[in-house]
Write a structure and sequence with these properties.
The protein is of the alpha/beta class. Helices cover 24% and strands 26% of the residues. The strands form 3 sheets. A 6-stranded mixed β-sheet has the order 1-2-3-4-5-6, with helices on one face.
Length: 239
């Protein structure tokens, strides 16, 4: 066991990775006893980095999770499965092929002492999931810091997105931490209390007004969206 790995002894590890080009955020969670690890929303370009961190910390990657079918980058799920034998896990209504385990709302996914509760939070895409771990949420592109995911991509539905956030996420305790799928103006962590009070898309905004604002458009679709969607419907595997 390396010196770095020896530090992972008392409490679970949470590490956040940021991509400069897209602002996308990925997460590593690891159990100190079993050395089992989960990666959430990996980018294909960062697979060598994830593997190096796993090796340095003497961790066994058991699960690779995507919160949804991304349109702004290609997932590293298939490459990580090839390198580590980890299982690819996606929402049961995401429309993708080639994954190993379907995730259903209300279920839990475990890796050692790490237990994630699966929340279905559609709207940005039909198959969007949020993962709840203790007092933390990994919201993907559903709830962002001071914002929310767009609804102009295939399957986007502003009414469903509003319902997902206001019914499933914002009622949680104030101190629940929000780890989004994208950096927002240099911010990478928020909390439910802040989002409930200060997020301009939800504080004092009705459902109809939210839908109206989204219907007005103005959002910019991701570069190479079709290429990324096609790859991610294969879990990032080559065509």
């Amino acid at each position: 066991m390396t010196a770095s790995a020896a530090t992972l002894t008392a409490s679970p590890l949470l590490r956040q990775f940021a991509d400069r080009d897209t602002g996308a955020l990925s997460y590593l969670l690891a159990c100190p006893e079993s050395r089992q690890a989960i990666i959430i929303d990996p980018l294909l370009e960062h697979v060598p980095l994830y593997l190096a961190v796993l090796d340095e910390l003497d961790l066994k990657l058991t699960h690779v999770l995507d919160t949804h079918i991304h349109a702004d980058h290609t997932t590293g799920s298939a490459a990580l499965r090839t390198a580590t034998g980890a299982r690819i896990c996606l929402g049961d209504c995401c429309g993708a092929d080639g994954y190993d385990q379907a995730l259903t709302a209300g279920e839990q996914l475990a890796a050692g002492s790490i237990a994630l509760e699966i929340l279905h939070t559609p709207g940005h895409t039909p198959g969007c999931l949020t993962f709840r771990w203790r007092d933390r949420l990994f919201t993907g592109d559903c709830l962002l810091i001071g914002g929310a995911g767009g609804t102009d991509e295939p399957g986007g539905d502003p009414g469903r997105l509003f319902d997902s956030i206001t019914r499933n996420l914002l009622p949680l305790p104030d101190e629940t931490l929000v780890y989004p799928g994208h950096d927002t103006q240099g911010r990478r962590v928020s909390c439910i209390g802040e989002e409930r009070r200060q997020n301009p898309l939800f504080s004092g905004i009705s459902r109809d007004e939210f839908i109206s604002r989204r219907a007005a458009g103005g959002g910019q679709l991701p570069v190479d969206m079709k290429k990324h969607l096609a790859a991610n419907l294969r879990c990032g595997a080559p065509a």
